[in-house]
Amino acid sequence: MKIMSIIYKEIHQYKTYGKAILVSNGKLEFIATLDIGPRVMHVSLVGMPSVLEDECPLKTQLPDGKTYNFFGGHRIWHNPEAFPRSYMPDNEPLESYEMLKDGILLTQKEEPWTHMKKSLEVRFEEDGIRIRNLITNLGAWPVEFAIWSLSIGSRDGREVCPIVQRETGFLPNKAFVSWPYSRMNDPRVHWGQRYVVVDQNRDDYSAFKFGYANELGWVAYFVHGQCFVKTFNHDQSGKYPDMNTSYQTYSSYWGVELESLSPLKQVKPSETYTHEEKWYIVASDALKSTDEDEITALLKPIAEVTGIELPVIAL
User: Fold this and answer.
1) Is there a contact between 5 and 20 (Cβ–Cβ < 8 Å)?
2) Cβ-based neighbour number of residue 242 at 10 Å
3) How far apart are CA 263 and CA 290, in angstroms?
4) Which candidate among 15, 80, 211, 311 keeps its CA 20 to 30 Å from the CA of 190?
């Protein structure tokens, strides 16, 4: 087993977000903010543009007069989505951060109203990055929620969502969930048999969102000469929010959100709930076609590196 050499570099002012830390293993690098968060704002192959969009201009005014800034990058929410519960600001410095031998642990202060406490553990592995999204219930009673792991893909990219081809005879084997503002004929979306392809268009200010039970547990996002593969566990027996969706995606002019969810769970006081993802970044040509055979051809060598299962039409 190879011993990784991890480099940590302090950043005194990362854009408008204050202090941050760049962490690299010589192949991959990420930037985590310290004055807001927990957030990962940049992820890429070393020296390449980020696959994450770190500047989102959206803001929401909360009932207590505070502002929720969407910012960008990777963040943690709790689901089911509710206003203002889901929109607790992460505008303040972290309560703590800890340098690990292979990454970093970022911990937010307890949310004053929900009594939730969020942490983000980011660790390099030999072939990628392991992300642990953690939420601790510091309240006085159990709360049912799912962990919502949201990564904003950089602009001008193309997302590939795999569709399970499980044979179920005369019974349905998949369902797609839509939101009121979504157009099913949105030109950014290409509905296929094996894949749904979602484009990011910086000139389209409308919003599109869909969700589904992503049984294969991965999505791929092609941008800036890289393919960002986000993997997660789909629990076939789990109860998921939003009409049983373990994956959701949202596209607008500022980026495209790649959102995996954990099953809903009754979390006891002082209990920590964890949702893991594995991130891979592979140098890749751009995905220029929505032809499913061409998509598969581009994904095959990526699948060999990442271990993802490509959908095959059921006979």
Assistant:
1) no
2) 18
3) 31
4) 80
